[in-house]
Design brief:
The chain is an alpha+beta fold. The chain has one domain: Gcn5-related N-acetyltransferase (GNAT) (Aminopeptidase, 3-Layer(aba) Sandwich), CATH 3.40.630.30. 25% of the residues lie in helices and 32% in strands. The chain is built from 3 helices and 7 strands, in the order E-H-E-E-E-H-E-H-E-E. Strands 1-2-3-4-5-7-6 form a 7-stranded mixed sheet, sandwiched between helices. Strand 6 and strand 7 form a beta hairpin. The longest helix is centred in the middle third of the chain and has 14 residues. It is globular, with a radius of gyration of 15 Å.
């Protein structure tokens, strides 16, 4: 798997896919299958994308786009949580999901996120569901 971390490229991908607005604190990675090694990265090559922003206190927002679920590995999931919790020092990670995106809600809850709030009409197509995961509840972190 090739990992692309160019901030501008990653943000542009999330803007295109999720409508995410630009922010100075945006960070992320695009995971691209090895079959595209040597090519100029194109949006259709991305299998899994993970981004973070809104770092406030000990909290941040995590954003994911999964276009090729077969490439989601334990390693990618572990790395996705190690960044905010171990590198950035967050204690809580938030995920914001449109209530009509049943696949994302199911996936996030499988990862261990818990719904904490619902904003009526706040999503693109439905309500905006606020999910959270506390560091102490994250089963994806490596034991210390």
């Amino acid at each position: 798997m090739i990992d692309l971390t160019n901030p501008r490229m990653v943000w542009e991908y999330f803007h295109r896919e999720l409508g995410l607005h630009e922010s100075d604190d945006f960070r992320g990675v695009l995971h691209v299958p090895n079959e595209f090694k040597g090519y100029v990265a194109r949006p259709e090559h991305v299998a899994v994308a993970v981004g973070y922003n809104s770092f406030i206190g000990k909290t941040c927002c995590m954003h994911t786009v999964i276009t090729r679920p077969e490439y989601v590995t334990r390693s990618i999931v572990r790395e996705a949580f190690e960044y905010p919790f171990n590198v950035a020092g967050c204690e809580v990670v938030l995920a914001l999901v449109d209530s009509t995106n049943e696949a994302a809600l199911k996936f996030d809850k499988h990862l261990g996120f818990q719904e904490v709030h619902r904003i009526e009409g706040g999503g693109l197509d439905g309500d905006l569901i606020v999910l959270q995961m506390h560091r102490k509840d994250c089963r994806w972190l490596r034991p210390h």
